[in-house]
Automatic annotation (TrEMBL):
<feature type="active site">
    <location>
        <position position="201"/>
    </location>
</feature>
<keyword id="KW-0315">Glutamine amidotransferase</keyword>
<dbReference type="GO" id="GO:0000107">
    <property type="term" value="F:imidazoleglycerol-phosphate synthase activity"/>
</dbReference>
<feature type="active site">
    <location>
        <position position="199"/>
    </location>
</feature>
<dbReference type="GO" id="GO:0000105">
    <property type="term" value="P:L-histidine biosynthetic process"/>
</dbReference>
<dbReference type="InterPro" id="IPR010139">
    <property type="entry name" value="Imidazole-glycPsynth_HisH"/>
</dbReference>
<dbReference type="Pfam" id="PF00117">
    <property type="entry name" value="GATase"/>
</dbReference>
<keyword id="KW-0963">Cytoplasm</keyword>
<feature type="active site" description="Nucleophile">
    <location>
        <position position="89"/>
    </location>
</feature>
<keyword id="KW-0368">Histidine biosynthesis</keyword>
<comment type="subunit">
    <text>Heterodimer of HisH and HisF.</text>
</comment>
<dbReference type="InterPro" id="IPR017926">
    <property type="entry name" value="GATASE"/>
</dbReference>
<dbReference type="GO" id="GO:0004359">
    <property type="term" value="F:glutaminase activity"/>
</dbReference>
<keyword id="KW-0378">Hydrolase</keyword>
<dbReference type="InterPro" id="IPR029062">
    <property type="entry name" value="Class_I_gatase-like"/>
</dbReference>
<comment type="function">
    <text>IGPS catalyzes the conversion of PRFAR and glutamine to IGP, AICAR and glutamate. The HisH subunit catalyzes the hydrolysis of glutamine to glutamate and ammonia as part of the synthesis of IGP and AICAR. The resulting ammonia molecule is channeled to the active site of HisF.</text>
</comment>
<keyword id="KW-0328">Glycosyltransferase</keyword>
């Protein structure tokens, strides 16, 4: 690269399947230097350097919308090729095996075993700023202080991490926890698949640094 030349921005697609704050995610990613596109086009989303899957609302409705947009195939195809995917909020929840809301059970993408269920807390939804406990070797939280706070809006979460890795040749996922009434999974780093229960696009400087960390892996 010649002196003074700029490195090309990473191409990130925010997948628009009707269930996410796509404009907020677009602005946050552009702010940290990504070349961002909002689309539900399968081929463009497949070809991007990174795919961000947002999500708001009910687990079952999000899964229905994702399947109708072929998002389940898209996520599977990208991960099979080792191509980065990041889920946010319900976009993280649907990566697990199943979700139960108001007695209704729905199947997720089952990238990780586990159940999304209501938090056992004095007050739900969990709405506002909270700290997290990340592994020391986390790439997602690199450069961030332990007292950094992130913005959560949810009533449901994964309360128990069920995936056990016994093969020493396979790297176990890095799991970050938060507490609201009880511990719950706040983020996961698993090869090309990363996810957060909180909203980095609404988490100020800490969220921006986290998104930069993700872009640096693309």
């Amino acid at each position: 690269m010649t002196a003074g030349a700029k490195k090309a921005a990473k191409k990130v697609v925010v997948f628009d399947y009707g269930f996410g704050n796509v404009r907020s995610a677009e602005r946050a990613l552009a702010h940290v230097g990504a070349d961002v596109e909002i689309t539900r086009d399968y081929d463009r989303a497949t070809a991007a350097d990174g795919l961000l899957v947002p999500g708001v609302g009910a687990f079952a409705a999000c899964m229905k919308g994702l399947r109708e947009a072929r998002g389940d195939w898209l996520v599977g195809r990208r991960l099979a090729g080792g191509r980065p995917v990041m889920g946010i909020c319900v976009g993280m929840q649907i990566l697990f095996g199943r979700g139960i809301e108001h007695g209704v059970e729905a199947e997720g993408l089952d990238e990780w075993p586990g159940t999304v269920e209501q938090l056992n807390a004095p007050v739900v939804p969990h709405m506002g700023w909270n700290t997290v406990k990340a592994p020391e070797d986390s790439q997602l939280f690199a450069g961030l202080d332990e007292d950094a706070r992130y913005y959560f809006v949810h009533s449901y979460a994964v309360r128990t991490w069920e995936l056990e890795v016994t093969n020493p040749n396979i790297r176990a996922p890095k799991v970050t926890w938060a507490t609201h009434g009880e511990p719950f999974v706040a983020a996961v780093e698993n090869g090309p698949l990363w996810a957060t229960q909180f909203h980095p696009e609404k988490s100020g400087d800490a969220g921006a640094q986290l998104l930069r960390n993700w872009l640096d892996t693309l």
